[in-house]
Amino acid sequence: MKHRSVLFLASGVALLAASACSAISIPSILNTAPSPGEVVIPNALPTIGTLQDYESTLEQIYQLVSPAVVSIQVGQGAGSGFVWDTLGHIVTNNHVVDGSDSIQVTFSDGTVRSAELVGADADSDLAVIKVDLPAARLRPVELASSTEVKVGQIAIAIGNPFALENTMTVGIVSAVGRVLPVEPSGSGQLSYTIPDIIQTDAPINPGNSGGVLVDDQGQLIGVTAAIASPVRASAGVGFAIPSDIVKRVVPALIANGRYEHTWLGISGGSLTPDLTQAMNLNADQQGALIIDIVPGGPADQADLRGSNQELTINGRLFRVGGDVITAIDGQAIDNFEDLVAFLARSTEVGQQVTLSILRAGTTQTTTLELAARPSS
What we know:
Blueprint: E1 6-9, H1 48-65, E2 69-74, E3 77-83, E4 89-92, H2 94-97, E5 103-107, E6 112-121, E7 126-130, E8 154-159, E9 167-182, E10 192-200, E11 212-214, E12 220-229, E13 238-242, H3 243-256, E14 262-263, E15 266-270, H4 273-278, E16 288-293, H5 298-301, E17 309-313, E18 316-320, E19 324-328, E20 331-332, H6 336-346, E21 352-359, E22 362-369, E23 371-372
Antiparallel strand pairs: 1-12, 2-3, 2-5, 3-4, 4-7, 5-6, 6-7, 8-9, 8-11, 9-10, 10-13, 11-12, 12-13, 14-23, 15-16, 16-19, 17-18, 19-20, 19-21, 21-22
């Protein structure tokens, strides 16, 4: 029997939280060099000493991070979050608290406080709530840079799966650079994706949403948000919103209650060999193909062109013929995901950017001013 893999938001009881506000440095057991005279046997099983070091590292990470983990209850649902600062701000997923009339937060020591919503952003699936607690009772998370995350690195999740508070699971970063679709808030609304998503095989289940994924130093690399599974439980493919996006969005939510994403006003896809052949381009040409242009948006005002031809490839209908974006501000764009990621990482509303495009096989450049993305 075939099973269809479905993307689920990992809420109902959300994910973990990371905290590393102290100056404790936890050595990575993966970077431990052999001691003088030690014989290293390739592909050998770890020694008992190495296993003990590994266990000790995980224990220290749990002790360091778990005080920042919170459980969030919202009516009939639940999720996780983590302490952001000593002012009482707590970060979680937007889908955990969206539409909630009341929010209750439970800390690892059993302390329970009501929380109020400070700000939310559906397009990054992040939200900030606030509780009233003395600064000395709060252990903020320490953030790492998600751009430094590599496939194969240890990934540790601590949260509240199935309402089982302060649960830690361990795996690796199994992929980077994924995209996570954002559910439109209503029919006819524009749909977007969150770029630079971190994929992990650390078990993540309903209830893990809004918590954290941390590295071998106990620092946050992502906020766990969703799983891909045919059975609404961990199938070894979980997704976390990267910490570099969290760093940009959360301060704006605290200051203004909202975050403005930059916007070109296009929809599109990545070039494939079939599409390049259909458009008479070089077989190895890469880039982001513009399919539709939003009337009145930045791309429309800059006279960029969408696809106006239809063709069938392997039984599927495609639209082709639009401009192909190959670079933005000198940064090569190999696919549509590169374009989305660059806008999220490196641009601000009102900023002027220069696009390199291919139009009917001819290279051109154009400059436009980025606008604020309409709400999804």
